[in-house]
Amino acid sequence: MKVCLYFEGEKMISTSGIGRALKHQKAALASQGIEYTLDPDDDYDILHINTVGPSSLGVIAKARKRGLKVIYHAHSTEEDFRNSFVLSNQIAPVFKKLLITCYSKADYIITPTPYSKSLLEGYEGINVPIVDISNGIDLDRFHYNKEKVKAFRRYFSLKDEDKVVISVGLYFERKGLLDFMEVAKQLPQYKFIWFGYTPLYTVPKKIREVIEEDHPHNVILPGYVKGPVIEGAYAGADCFFFPSKEETEGIVVLEALASSQQVLLRDIPVYDPWLLHGVNCYKGKTVADFVDLTEKIVEGKVDNLTENGRFTAESRSIECIGEKLREVYEKVLAL
């Protein structure tokens, strides 16, 4: 069995969740001894395609002409396309039609969560079997590491007494950026760091303004950061606060859980049933909830759920995901 992992615009998506999904898929297949290629002109048995667009459709057409099986990894939905780029809400219905066109060309669809599976099953025009498999997490990379924590605190010149709340994401309204800023404003005693970057010309005016000039004094915006600093931030912060309003999974949430970090999320359907309030994370619905829970988490006034969170991440290890992908590949080859 040989699989072609295809990602259109690989360089452009390298810093996004889909970009990390590519790394995870390569590692997952390697863990199972499954041969793979990234070249769609190579010889292979299954096309495992991860992106939508003209090149992706062209690769599918070539694979079909060769009589090969096609699996579509559905990372995107209309719902998580909204409230992102300029005009994303206006374009969303057209984007949904593109998704349906692409996804319906597969023999099988993989999507990260039961929630995203339920969304796709509700799209008229998709009549392909769908299975939910997490994007997985590299447990060796994300865990508590004293030297990485030191690198994080040194990078931001943090004092011993500084309490830090972090988040990771693109500069999208959907990611809850505005609520993050409001919570920071109401908790000036803490430092808030938002890791991530999006070209400002691509996002709406209200997002540009808050990034460029209108964010609270205690918010730090370092842009895209990788390596020991971000890994140390996951482990060394006092809270990971991710108020995203829509996700298909949220790889950054898995990274925080794997790092044994206290996690605060918006209470949205994508986290059901695998993330439970008061069990392996905390959840809120309003800014008032987030302010209250952030302070309680940072000050140690609520239970420490990091052990349960790490256990949740372990159940989505690269090896576990590799086993599930193998099962799907074998099923598709037998069709």
From TrEMBL:
The keyword Chloroplast does not apply. This is 1,2-diacylglycerol-3-alpha-glucose alpha-1,2-glucosyltransferase. InterPro entries: Glyco_trans_1, Glyco_trans_4-like_N, Glycosyltransferase_grp1. Residues 156-308 form the Glycosyl transferase family domain. It comes from the Bacteria. One of its GO terms (molecular function) is glycosyltransferase activity. Residues 43-141 form the Glycosyltransferase subfamily 4-like N-terminal domain. Gene3D superfamilies: Glycogen Phosphorylase B (3.40.50.2000). Keywords: Glycosyltransferase, Transferase. Its EC number is 2.4.-.-.
